[in-house]
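queue> pop job 88
queue> type: inverse folding (structure -> sequence)
queue> payload:
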């Protein structure tokens, strides 16, 4: 039984690890490709370090098209299971970037070596399940023994004691040769044996109850730990490390869900596309560390400005964000966009190349009551068109998608 459970958990862990690492690598490919194209070693190291900090990653490396190799390796506390389990197969992600001339080229390869944490947890879970089955079987044996003892010994002895107590020596042949003192001693002996057996039966019942309670507590604790681990893995897969917002994978999934829901209910669905103005010049002037802080601050302002728990903010690309607003029309969307712009202006993040002297954003808004023949890409396309208009008209402004932008 143990071998079967462990094998099943091992296969599940292999598949789960592959899925998690695939999602993790895909989410970092766009920004890693751009960093390699720009020969930005600082940004590359930040990206690799961010990937390497994930619990499921044992090591990560990046080889650019010039043969340069950057390698990060994490340290995990050795365990018995990790020492005997085989290494998981690494995953390679080709990095493609578009040059300023518009040519798409392969700039390198991102390689992620998954760790054995999921394997250890799955195999350990299988062994634990087998232990619980054995433990439950022992409890069943104890209960069966107590039941047999009661049926074959305790109940007959009780009946015997009752019969002896009611027996008239003058009429009972068995007791004719026994004097009064002997009869009394025999009855007392039988009663003592009965009391002894009843006490043992009671102790077995108490022990059984305690064991069952301990087992239930162990199961609850294990279940809670597994749920917590699952939640952490989900967060790793769906969260952008730098901004703390949803990553592109989580954004695409959420937009599809909200699109389907809006289609069923016939309610409006709005989308904001937000871009930090002159961000490349900001990076060049203040450095990449300051650029990361600017992205993080902007993400915090966006998230804090959303009025509903159903609203979703995501990092769409390097300095571009997207906000999904279910059950929201154009007027409400414009109010939310205005609030984001005003809150960011209050941060007064100095920017030499900004007309205002501080960091600003441009926003494009699209909104639709979805139709069956359409897809979420219509919403993204329209919001992008509106964002481009904001940028071309001087930046630091909000534009609403025109009807022709939805085609």
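queue> result:
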């Amino acid at each position: 039984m143990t071998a079967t459970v462990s094998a099943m958990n091992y296969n599940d862990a292999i598949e789960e690890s592959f899925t998690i690492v695939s999602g993790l690598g895909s989410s970092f490919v766009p920004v890693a490709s751009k960093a390699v194209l720009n020969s930005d070693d600082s940004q590359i190291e930040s990206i690799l370090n961010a990937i390497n900090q994930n619990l499921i990653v044992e090591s990560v490396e990046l080889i650019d098209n010039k043969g340069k190799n950057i390698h990060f390796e994490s340290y995990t506390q050795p365990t018995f299971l990790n020492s005997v389990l085989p290494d998981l197969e690494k995953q390679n992600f080709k990095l493609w970037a578009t040059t300023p001339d518009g040519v798409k080229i392969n700039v390198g390869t991102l390689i992620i070596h998954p760790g054995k944490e999921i394997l250890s947890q799955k195999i350990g879970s299988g062994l634990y399940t087998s232990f619980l089955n054995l433990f439950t079987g022992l409890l069943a044996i104890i209960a069966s023994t107590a039941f047999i003892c009661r049926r074959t010994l305790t109940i007959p002895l009780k009946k015997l004691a009752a019969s002896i107590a009611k027996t008239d020596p003058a009429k009972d042949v068995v007791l004719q040769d026994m004097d009064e003192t002997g009869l009394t001693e025999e009855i007392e002996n039988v009663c003592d044996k009965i009391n002894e057996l009843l006490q043992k039966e009671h102790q077995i019942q108490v022990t059984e109850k305690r064991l069952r309670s301990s087992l239930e507590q162990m199961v609850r604790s294990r279940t809670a730990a597994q749920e917590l681990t699952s939640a952490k893995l989900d967060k790793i897969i769906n969260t952008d490390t730098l901004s703390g917002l949803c990553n592109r994978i989580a954004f695409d999934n959420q937009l599809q869900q909200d699109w389907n829901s809006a289609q069923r209910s016939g309610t409006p669905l709005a989308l904001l596309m937000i871009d930090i103005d002159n961000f490349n010049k900001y990076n060049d002037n203040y450095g990449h560390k300051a650029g990361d802080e600017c992205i993080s601050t902007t993400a915090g302002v966006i998230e804090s400005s959303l009025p509903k728990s159903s609203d979703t903010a995501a990092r769409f690309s390097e300095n571009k964000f997207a906000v999904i607003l279910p059950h929201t029309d154009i007027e409400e969307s414009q109010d939310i966009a205005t609030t984001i712009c005003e809150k960011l202006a209050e941060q007064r993040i100095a920017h030499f190349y900004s007309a205002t002297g501080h960091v600003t954003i441009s926003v494009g808004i699209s909104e639709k009551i979805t139709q069956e023949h359409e897809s979420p890409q219509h919403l993204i396309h329209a919001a992008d068109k509106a964002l481009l208009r904001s940028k071309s008209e001087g930046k630091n402004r909000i534009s609403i998608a025109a009807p022709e932008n939805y085609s």
